[in-house]
Amino acid sequence: MDEQVFRRLVTSDGNAIELWLEPTGQSFRLPPGRALEVVCRGPSPGGLEEQRHPLGHVALYAWPGARFSVFEGGIEIYSEPDGLPEFPTVPGGTVRQMIELLFGPFELRRLSMPH
């Protein structure tokens, strides 16, 4: 089966924002004018889910078995390692639903993390 790939360009225009990659919780702070290309790929079909906070913060949720890589100016600055265990989901559920069930909504998770 062919690998499934999704790409997103995340930019911070006027205000600094945060980019979160789930389920690992890896985050990046983007000052105004910074842009990151996020690539999510996995061996099985799935979908990338995006959640935007009213202040511009972005959370991207991979599907089970998928991994993120982040590029800035064409240079890879982050790559999730192979061999990470697949985040558990219930049949018909998404990674986002499971994370919110276990750890709360994005707004509360980001407020509880040190900045």
Could you provide a short overview of the structure?
By secondary structure, the chain is mainly β. It has 2 helices and 8 strands; from the N terminus they run ββββββββαα. The strands form 2 sheets. It has a 4-stranded antiparallel β-sheet, with no helix packed on it.
Structure, explained:
With 115 residues, this protein is mostly beta strands. It has one domain. 14% of the residues lie in helices and 40% in strands. It contains two helices and eight strands. The strands form two sheets. A four-stranded antiparallel beta sheet has the order 1-4-7-8, with no helix packed on it. A four-stranded mixed beta sheet has the order 3-2-6-5, covered by helices on one side. The longest helix has 9 residues, at 95-103.
Question: Secondary-structure blueprint of this entry?
Answer:
Layout: E1 4-11, E2 17-22, E3 26-30, E4 35-42, E5 49-52, E6 58-61, E7 67-72, E8 75-79, H1 95-103, H2 106-112
Parallel strand pairs: 2-6
Antiparallel strand pairs: 1-4, 2-3, 4-7, 5-6, 7-8
Biggest pleated sheet: 4 strands, antiparallel
The class by helix and strand makeup works out as mainly beta
Radius of gyration: 14 Å
Q: Which word captures the global form?
A: globular
What strand line-up does the widest sheet have?
A: 1-4-7-8
Overview features:
4-stranded antiparallel beta sheet, mainly beta, 2 helices, 115 residues
